[in-house]
């Protein structure tokens, strides 16, 4: 028996049109999974599918608002009608907003509360609602895996990103809470875990870590590298091994955990 086989699994990825979700989708398709991309705009979904079909035809997608229960339920009904099951949900939808990040010359008292609330909605409720809607289908078959995306900012006080940090800390707690709830009430076939990426340079944090002028690290970027034992930023594809493990039978006794993928950042004391 191949414990790492994902060939027969139907895997949903919210935010699947983004860099993170798209990278995961490409990897899982390459390993034989059936992948369903969920994102909030037609053009994003269409572009993602067109790109991913270069890897496999076992990809489809739907426009879906992760913050709208009715939208999620409509898509869930379509997915069940087509595939008859949902094996894995990866909650990759998320993000940050400028007003929920404290500027270099600002303090917490300058935070934009509206932006703060929107960041919490997107990162927290944008994972809770899909977990509840698609999780109901998993409960019917007593099998299913939910994977949330946490962050290093959830585990320690990473300065400036207050809204993002608060929402990701809540993701850690919700992951553990839902794992216990589903296992106790619906059986061992339902698992909920999260990954906590370390520092990866992407569109959302590039300006915080890289100087536009010459591509050198900012002070913040240098501080992160100094506190990462592997002395580099991560690559997006380095998340795939852990995602694969959590999706398949190799992790069937693993639930309620948040796995750091961080080059040692969370283990390092700084001295």
Which value, in Å, is the CA radius of gyration? 18 Å
**Shape assignment:** globular
Strand order of the largest sheet: 3-2-1-4-5-6-7
Count of distinct structural domains: 2
Identify the CATH homologous superfamily of the largest domain.
Answer: NAD(P)-binding Rossmann-like Domain
CATH class of the largest domain: Alpha Beta
Task: Give the termini distance in whole angstroms.
Answer: 45 Å
Helix segment tally? 8
Determine the fraction of residues in helical runs and give it as a percent range: 40-55%
Strand percentage lies at 5-15%
- How many DSSP E strands? 7
Task: Report the major sheet.
Answer: 7 strands, parallel
The structure class reads alpha/beta
Spans of at least 5 consecutive residues with low confidence: none
CATH topology of the largest domain: Rossmann fold
Summarize this entry quickly.
With 271 residues, the chain is of the alpha/beta class. The protein has 8 helices and 7 strands, in the order E-H-E-H-E-H-E-H-E-H-E-H-H-H-E.
Chart the SSEs and their pairings.
Layout lengths: L9 E5 L4 H12 L3 E6 L2 H11 L6 E5 L5 H15 L4 E4 L21 H29 L2 E6 L12 H25 L3 E8 L8 H4 L9 H8 L13 H8 L10 E4 L10
Parallel strand pairs: 1-2, 1-4, 2-3, 4-5, 5-6, 6-7
């Amino acid at each position: 028996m191949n414990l790492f086989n994902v060939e027969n699994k139907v895997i949903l990825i919210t935010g699947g049109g983004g860099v993170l979700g798209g990278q995961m989708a490409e990897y899982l398709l390459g390993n034989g999974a059936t992948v369903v991309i969920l994102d909030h705009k037609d053009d994003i979904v269409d572009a993602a599918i067109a790109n991913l079909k270069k890897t496999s035809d076992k990809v489809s997608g739907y426009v879906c608002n992760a913050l709208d229960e009715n939208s999620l339920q409509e898509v869930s009904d379509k997915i069940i009608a087509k595939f008859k099951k949902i094996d894995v949900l990866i909650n990759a939808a998320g993000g940050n907003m400028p007003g929920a990040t404290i500027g270099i010359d600002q303090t917490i008292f300058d935070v934009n509360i509206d932006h703060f609330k929107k960041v919490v909605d997107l990162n927290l409720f944008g994972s809770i609602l899909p977990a509840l809607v698609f999780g109901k289908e998993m409960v019917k078959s007593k099998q299913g895996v939910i994977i949330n995306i946490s962050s290093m900012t959830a585990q320690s006080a990473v300065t400036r990103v207050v809204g993002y940090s608060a929402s990701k800390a809540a993701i850690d707690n919700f992951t553990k809470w839902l794992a216990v709830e589903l296992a106790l009430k619906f059986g061992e076939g339902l698992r909920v875990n999260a990954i906590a990426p370390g520092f990866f340079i992407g569109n959302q944090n590039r300006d915080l870590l890289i100087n536009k002028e010459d591509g050198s690290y900012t002070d913040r970027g240098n501080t992160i590298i100094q506190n990462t034992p592997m002395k580099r930023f991560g690559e997006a594809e380095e998340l795939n091994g852990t995602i694969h493990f959590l999706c398949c039978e190799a992790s069937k006794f693993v639930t309620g955990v948040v796995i750091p993928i961080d080059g040692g950042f969370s283990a390092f004391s700084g001295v």
